[in-house]
Design brief:
The complex is a heterodimer of chains A (about 140) and B (about 180). Chain A is mostly helical and about 140 residues long. Chain A has one domain. In chain A, helix 1 packs antiparallel against helix 2 and helix 2 packs antiparallel against helix 3. The longest helix of chain A is centred in the first third of the chain and has 29 residues. Chain B has about 180 residues and is mainly alpha-helical. Chain B has two domains: about 40 residues, no CATH class; about 120 residues, no CATH class. In chain B, helix 1 packs across helix 2. The longest helix of chain B is centred in the middle third of the chain and has 28 residues. The radius of gyration of chain B is 20 Å and the shape is globular. Classes of the chains: A mainly alpha (about 140), B mainly alpha (about 180). The interface between A and B is large, with 46 and 51 residues. Strand 1 of chain A pairs parallel with strand 1 of chain B.
């Protein structure tokens, strides 16, 4: 490509192309993680992290291609809401998964929560959480 | 209403955020639209009254910008780490659940630390003990005690960064003493 044709548009196109491809790669990473990881909580790692970056890259590429300033606030708000909600949903799913024992203890090198949970169950007696576990 | 009213100054960040969302959704930041948005923000904040977020009363922008950039870099690193682990280790990955006691007892800081922790490499909040402000964190690829200690240190460093940005003065001086000692 000649240096003359390397205009601003070409650079923007190239950057957004890279962002789109890497963003799609991140979605692929999340999918591979969901398939390959052994238990619920490791899968939640795959469902949170690459997804947030992937969305960031795709939204940036979109913003670069739209060439209007008013689209940026919408994209930023969309990403911030993603940042705020993804950890909460991952936490709720992970918490529920831990309490219903959807995990492989042999794949944990340490588990400092187990002792606390057992102690709490011992002092408080029968709790709602135990009921859930017993029904399984 | 029996609940304690909060001052306008405390409510202002929430109202500004609501107006920004309003403007972004209408894709229109003209004064008229913003004024109408502000009116709706006040009505919404009065009608759907939530417990106020207790802000620390200070916000250090000079600390916040490097923290935000560092956060973005860590999100990128986290994504590639998950990609690598998913491709290379897959079902054999070893994790751990570790307890991390935090310094701060403010709900805002514990929440913010939990959020940042969930998005940076290798950690996910499983359980929060609000009374002792302890986070129970599931770390991916934590194979031994050294990794666990490293993860614990990372989370506490994240919290230290957040205290420097928006912790209360008391928390900040306690942190400075701890670092100096």
């Amino acid at each position: 490509m000649n240096p003359e044709t390397l205009s601003g548009d070409t650079v923007i196109d190239a950057v957004s192309a890279v962002f789109l491809v890497v963003g799609a790669l991140m979605s692929l990473a999340a999918a591979v993680g969901l398939l390959r990881f052994p238990d619920l909580m490791t899968r939640m790692h795959a469902a949170t992290k690459p997804q947030v970056l992937g969305l960031f890259l795709l939204l940036s590429a979109l913003g670069l291609q739209m060439r209007t300033w008013w689209v940026w606030p919408v994209l930023v708000v969309a990403w911030i809401f993603q940042l705020l909600t993804v950890p909460v949903s991952a936490h709720m799913v992970g918490r529920a998964g831990y309490r219903t024992k959807h995990l492989h203890p042999e794949l944990l090198s340490t588990d400092e929560l187990e002792a606390v949970v057992q102690q709490a169950a011992g002092t408080r007696g029968f709790t709602d959480d135990d009921e859930v576990t017993d029904r399984r | 209403m029996s609940r304690k009213r909060i001052s306008l100054r405390q409510e202002l960040p929430l109202l500004v955020w609501l107006v920004v969302v309003w403007g972004a959704l209408w894709r229109d930041f003209s004064p008229g639209n913003l004024l109408f948005g502000a009116l709706i923000a006040v009505v919404v904040a009065r009608l759907f009254y939530l417990p106020p977020v207790e802000l620390g009363g200070r916000f250090n922008v000079l600390r916040a910008v490097p923290f935000a950039l560092m956060f973005l870099a860590k999100v990128v690193a986290a994504s590639f780490q998950v990609l690598y682990l998913a491709a290379a280790k897959g079902p054999k990955v070893v994790s751990a659940v570790i307890a991390v006691p935090l310094r701060s007892h403010s709900d805002l800081l514990v929440t913010a630390t939990g959020h940042v922790t969930a998005l940076i490499p290798g950690s996910l909040v499983v359980e929060v003990d609000r009374s002792t402000s302890t986070l129970y964190i599931h770390g991916i690829n934590v194979r031994n005690a050294d990794d666990a200690a490293q993860l614990r240190k990372d989370v506490r460093d994240t919290e230290a960064g957040l205290i420097r940005i928006m912790g209360t003065k008391a928390e900040l001086s306690a942190l400075n003493q701890e670092v100096g000692a």
